[in-house]
C-alpha cells in the first residue's frame, strides 16, 4: 500500500475506532454496579482502562496526522499503539472464552447470559471492536513490526501488570466489603499473584506474536 493509502487507512481506522470506543465506554460506564463494586466504580475494570488506552491511541494517531509531527507520530505508532493493542488483545482473549463458557468467573451475580448487564452492541464495542480495529491498523498501516524490543516490552507489561494489581489494592476497599472486579481475582494469595504472573506473561507473548507475524512491506 502506498504512503497516501496508508495515511487514509490510518485516519479511517482510528476515527472509526474512536467513535465505537467512545460510544461503548459511555454506555458501559452507565451500567449501575452492585454495592460490592460501586465503591471503586467502573475505573477498576481492566476493560474500561483498556478502552481509555485505545481512545488515547486513536486521538494520538489522528492528532499526529493532522499536525504532521514526526515525533508525535512515532509516539503514537511505537508506544501508544503497541501498548493499547496488547492490552486489548489480552482483554479479548480472556473475556470471550469466559463469556461463552464460564460467565460467573468474569461477572459477579451473573450466572448465565440472560442477566447480562451489557447489550450485545455495547459488549462488542468494548470487548471486540478495539482489538479488531487496532490490529487492522497495525497490519495495514505499519510497514514493519513494532520497534520496541522484546526486553523493553517485558519491562512494560510487567510494570503494567504490577501497577494494575497495586491499583486494585488501593481502589478496592476489601475491609469495607468490596470485591475485586472479576470473580476469578477473588482468590487468596499466592493464587492471585499467580494469575497476574500468568496474564502478564501472556501479554508479553502477545507482543512477541504481533512482532513475529507482521509481514514487512515496502
From TrEMBL:
GO terms for cellular component: endomembrane system; membrane. InterPro entries: ADTRP_AIG1. It is a multi-pass membrane protein. Keywords: Membrane, Transmembrane, Transmembrane helix. The keyword Repeat does not apply. The chain crosses the membrane at residues 48-67, 79-98, 118-141, 153-171, 191-210. Pfam families: Far-17a_AIG1. Its main location: membrane. It is found in: Endomembrane system. This is LAQU0S05e03620g1_1.
Amino acid at each position: 500500500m502506498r504512503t497516501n493509502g496508508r495515511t487514509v487507512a490510518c485516519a479511517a481506522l482510528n476515527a472509526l475506532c474512536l467513535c465505537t470506543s467512545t460510544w461503548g465506554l459511555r454506555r458501559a460506564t452507565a451500567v449501575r454496579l452492585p454495592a460490592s463494586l460501586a465503591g471503586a466504580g467502573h475505573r477498576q475494570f481492566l476493560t474500561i482502562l483498556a478502552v481509555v488506552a485505545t481512545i488515547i491511541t486513536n486521538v494520538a494517531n489522528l492528532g499526529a496526522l493532522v499536525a504532521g509531527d514526526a515525533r508525535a507520530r512515532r509516539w503514537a505508532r511505537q508506544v501508544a499503539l503497541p501498548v493499547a493493542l496488547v492490552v486489548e488483545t489480552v482483554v479479548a482473549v480472556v473475556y470471550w472464552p469466559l463469556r461463552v463458557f464460564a460467565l460467573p468467573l468474569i461477572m459477579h451475580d451473573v450466572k448465565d447470559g440472560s442477566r447480562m448487564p451489557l447489550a450485545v452492541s455495547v459488549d462488542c464495542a468494548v470487548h471486540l471492536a478495539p482489538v479488531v480495529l487496532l490490529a487492522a491498523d497495525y497490519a495495514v498501516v505499519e510497514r514493519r513490526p513494532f520497534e520496541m524490543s522484546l526486553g523493553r516490552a517485558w519491562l512494560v507489561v510487567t510494570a503494567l501488570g504490577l501497577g494494575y494489581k497495586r491499583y486494585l489494592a488501593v481502589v478496592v476497599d476489601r475491609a469495607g466489603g468490596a470485591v475485586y472486579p472479576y470473580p476469578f481475582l477473588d482468590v487468596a494469595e499466592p493464587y492471585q499473584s499467580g494469575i497476574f504472573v500468568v496474564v502478564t506473561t501472556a501479554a508479553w507473548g502477545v507482543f512477541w506474536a504481533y512482532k513475529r507475524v507482521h509481514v514487512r512491506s515496502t
